[in-house]
Amino acid sequence: LLYLGSPSGLGREPSWRGPAAITASGGGDVNGDGYSDLVLTPGFDGGEVSVYLGSPQGLPLSPSWTLTDPSYPAVFRGEGFGLSVSIRGDANRDGFDDILVSQYRYHENLAFNPSVFCYLGKASGPSSRPDWAGRGNGISGSYGLNAAFCGDVNGDGDSEVLAADPASFPGSARLFHLGKQFPAPRIEHEPINFWNEGEPIVLDAAVTDHTDTVSRVEILHHSVYDSDFLPPIAMEGVEGDRYRGTIPGASVRAGLVYFIRATDNYGLAMRTLPIEVDLNPASAVTPRTLSFGVRVGAASGGKADRLLLSTTRPGPASVRLFDVQGRLAGTLLDTRNLENGMHVLSLSGATFLHASGVYFYRVDTADGTRSGRFVILH
Question: Which superkingdom does the taxonomy of this entry point to (predicted)?
């Protein structure tokens, strides 16, 4: 059962009902569409793990993908596959959360060898066979009884995996560094941090993969006012390992954030760090109307870190914030004479925004009044 959260808490009735499951894991995004997904194991001996993709409409009634027990011969399939599942980790740092499945009764060529499997997340879905397997010692039947992504314990940017073996003597656990197991494409790109308003941005990148073939290179970007990505822009090969793509001028009406992602023929991907592009001051035209929006900074991890106010006429101006109950939370700006132009209002010093939640703003200037809402996450 899935219960949706809200400002007033969880609903009384479930918004989604799935099959009976012995294990489940949610909160990860295995296909990179921005919605949290759910992975569950319908039964102890069913030999399957079901993947349900999140969407604006919620979870589907039927699984989007199904992972099956890789045991060989097939007569042994179904024994304990999916006893533990986890999707809250990105083992190869490609921006897609991966699926971890344990099987404490895995059979391989008639040999009993409990294992932990990792299926890499990707836009087209996980492979039918695991991309990585951590084997037991063939003796202890409890290896992989519980396994999970445990975060980045060594600071290399990759999620590690911890697999428990409680029945061994003495009880033990194994830590795996999966990132080194998955060589992904390498991207070399000279970031562009300033550009003229309304002019297309031509981006070049050198993409190499010494083990596989590069199948796709693309640009993903969004406005600093909105963290929702626009449709990917394909980069075409121009010479050797060099690729080129263009962000259209229509997207360069305000600052933007972009990164380049390359995918090989196995679906493994690597992307650059988010790069923030500001408009050259000399190219910025005077806004024709009052403009106000939430700015999402790349350096802040994709969270709202400032507000932008643009006016065409000088005069008195105020920016006030309210909580969901309509109470005044604080004032970001209150002046009798604000010059026309672009103004940045930082949220970092707004100590009154101490709690996560939805906030509403009201802007009053010589150009008019505007109101809206935004979300603060701590």
Answer: Bacteria
Nearest partner of 344 among 229, 254, 249, judged by Cα: 254
Half-sphere exposure of 144 (CA within 13 A, CB side): 29
In terms of domains, do 221 and 266 share one?
yes
- Based on the number of CB atoms within 10 Å of its own CB, is 12 exposed (0-12), middle (13-18) or buried (19 or more)? exposed
Q: Taking a C-beta distance cutoff of 8 angstroms, is the pair 164, 173 a contact?
A: yes
pTM, whole model, 2 decimals?
Answer: 0.49
Q: Which among 85, 47, 93 has a CA at the least distance from the CA of 66?
A: 47
Which tokens in the block code for residue 288? 């024709």
Q: By three-state DSSP, how is residue 334 classified?
A: strand
Q: Could you say which of 177, 205, 233 is where a domain stops?
A: 177
Give the CATH number of the domain where residue 267 resides.
2.60.40.10
What is the torsional sign of CA 37, 43, 44, 49?
A: negative
Domain range for 255 is 186-280
The contacts of residue 305 (CB under 8 Å, 6+ apart) are: 295, 296, 297, 299, 346, 347, 348
- Integer CA distances (angstroms), 40 to 167, 257, 279, in order: 25, 35, 46
Distance CA 106, CA 110 (A): 10
**Residues 221 and 251: beta-carbon distance below 8 Å:** yes
Name the helix (H) or strand (E) containing 358. strand 357-365
CB 32 within 8 A of CB 123: yes
pLDDT band at 378 (very low <50, low <70, confident <90, very high): low
Read off the CATH number of the domain in which 27 is found: 2.130.10.130
What's the mean pLDDT in 13-25?
Answer: 86
Is residue 324 pLDDT above 70, yes or no?
no
What is the rounded distance in angstroms from the CA atom of residue 250 to the CA atom of residue 193? 17
CB 361 within 8 A of CB 374: yes
Q: Is 229 helix (H, G, I), strand (E, B) or coil?
A: coil
User: Nearest CA to 323 among 374, 370, 378, 377?
Assistant: 374
